[in-house]
Design goal:
Distance between the termini: 65 Å
Helix content: over 70%
Order of helices and strands: HHHHHH
């Protein structure tokens, strides 16, 4: 590895790694091995890394702009108000880690959703049968369901934790020693 590549990799934090790069790698792998959509790979490691990262960013944004609001609208998830979250996060540093993990679940959700949509598009476009793609679609739907359940559970857990932290803080403020 070149010094520039090593320096670049050292600057990638866990959020970027798990919410951008990982979904990009997973999606690209799925497309390469289980799709008829041609995927050109770049032999330049730096360019390939940026393309995977960018793909992951797009998938992350799909999760943030499409999946999260949809789940809120159908009341599968409910967030604490942002100001309460920020206040609780100051007193419980684990909340930000839990939120980062939650965003990873959402990114993986959008990765598998995007791939299933791509496969259904290919089936429709190329008049393939679902039977020929059943195994990969089933696996993707199972993984999607697992991460959907995980995202819902984690979101609700974070909201409850925020409430608990704020109640404890309120109790401490109201407690006056004699």
């Amino acid at each position: 590895m070149t010094n520039a590549t090593e320096e670049l990799l050292s600057k990638i934090n866990s959020y970027n790694l798990f919410n951008y790069l990982l979904p990009g790698v997973i999606f690209s792998y799925l497309v390469k091995h289980y799709s008829t959509t041609p995927l050109k790979e770049d032999t330049n490691l730096v360019i390939a890394s940026f393309l995977l990262y960018f793909t992951g960013m797009i998938l992350n944004r799909i999760g943030s702009i499409v999946i999260e609001p949809s789940l809120k609208k159908i009341k599968f998830i409910k967030f604490s108000p942002y100001e309460m979250y920020v206040k609780a996060e100051k007193h419980d540093k684990k909340i930000s880690l839990l939120s980062e993990v939650n965003n990873t679940y959402r990114s993986i959700l959008s990765t598998f959703l995007a791939f299933v949509i791509l496969k259904l598009y290919e089936i429709f476009l190329f008049e393939e049968t679902i039977a020929n793609n059943f195994e990969v679609l089933l696996i993707c739907l199972v993984v999607f369901t697992i991460f959907l359940a995980s995202y819902i559970k984690q979101t609700n857990y974070i909201a409850k934790r925020v409430q608990i932290v704020l109640k404890e803080e309120e109790r401490e403020e109201n407690f006056q020693p004699s």
